[in-house]
Amino acid sequence: MDRSIKIAPSILASDFANFGAECQAIEAQGCDWVHVDVMDGHFVPALTFGPATCAAIRPHIKTVMDVHLMISPVDAYLQEFAEAGADILTVHAEAGPHLHRSLQHVRALGCKAGVALNPATPASALEYVLDLVDLVCVMTVNPGFGGQKFIHSQVAKTAEIREMIGDRPIHIEIDGGITPQTAPLMTAAGADVLVAGSAVFKGGSVSDPAPYGENIRAIRAAAEAARG
Ligand code: DX5
Ligand code: ZN
């Protein structure tokens, strides 16, 4: 189990007209995974894109395609996202009444299975599905938009989840409002995958990608220092 710090930029904060080049740029600048935010305008207020866009992005990603499904219902779409090439498919615990079934389905499709928890959802929602998950995504903002403010109450929840997980090979990912200031709180609490949109893409572009690398290194350094 690789518990080293992994930085997963969210392409929600990138140039939508240039997804392929943006994915290549963040990978060249040292990210570990690429985080892809799918929103349906129903489970969350905003709309982004669906499986066809994911499939188009896929050939431009060499690392890990981490697909965060903020959609409800979700089950009917899992196969299409798996076929689009997702390595990890994360569903929300709040997205439907049958989380257990959704996770079984994701694994049956050959993807790693993730569960995301909204800020109001307790860690106990994971209790009876832990053996079906490869990743828990703790939302540190209410999902739906990039650039929101980090919600501090999720630090204690992350520590609680780390405790629940024990020796199981499960990643803890955090998503929303992550910066060099907030990342250390979460890695100290047990997170290993840090999603960051605005904090990675700010100041750079496909034609000037060096700031992406500086931003990634700043988050990583702060996060690793808190690990001790
Ligand atoms: C929020 C998304 C996040 C978001 C993070 O609904 O799931 O992945 O893009 O953006 P920042 O890092 O800007 O909060
Ligand atoms: Zn996300």
Brief synopsis:
By secondary structure, the chain is an alpha/beta fold. It has a single domain (6-225), classed as TIM Barrel. It has helices at 19-28, 51-57, 78-83, 99-108, 154-165, 183-189, 198-201, 210-227; strands at 6-9, 34-39, 65-70, 88-92, 112-117, 135-139, 171-175, 193-196.
Overview of the structural elements:
By secondary structure, the protein is α/β, with parallel strands linked by helices. The chain has one domain (6-225): TIM Barrel. It is built from 8 helices and 8 strands; from the N terminus they run E-H-E-H-E-H-E-H-E-E-H-E-H-E-H-H. The longest helix has 18 residues, at 210-227. The mean pLDDT is 98.
Can you tell me the number of structural domains? 1
The gross shape turns out to be globular
The chain-level structural class is alpha/beta
- Name of the CATH architecture: Alpha-Beta Barrel
Count every helix, treating DSSP H or I runs of 4 or more residues as helices: 8
CATH H level: which superfamily? Aldolase class I
* Multimerization state: single chain
CATH topology: TIM Barrel
Secondary-structure element pattern, one letter each: EHEHEHEHEEHEHEHH
Q: Indicate the mean pLDDT.
A: 98
C-alpha termini separation: 19 Å
Strand segment count: 8
Strand numbers in spatial order across the main sheet: 1-8-7-6-5-4-3-2
Bound molecules: D-xylitol-5-phosphate, zinc ion
What would CATH call the class?
A: Alpha Beta
Unreliable parts: none
Helix content: 25-40%
Instruction: Give the DSSP E fraction (strand runs of 2 or more residues).
Output: 15-25%
Largest sheet: 8 strands, parallel
Radius of gyration: 16 Å
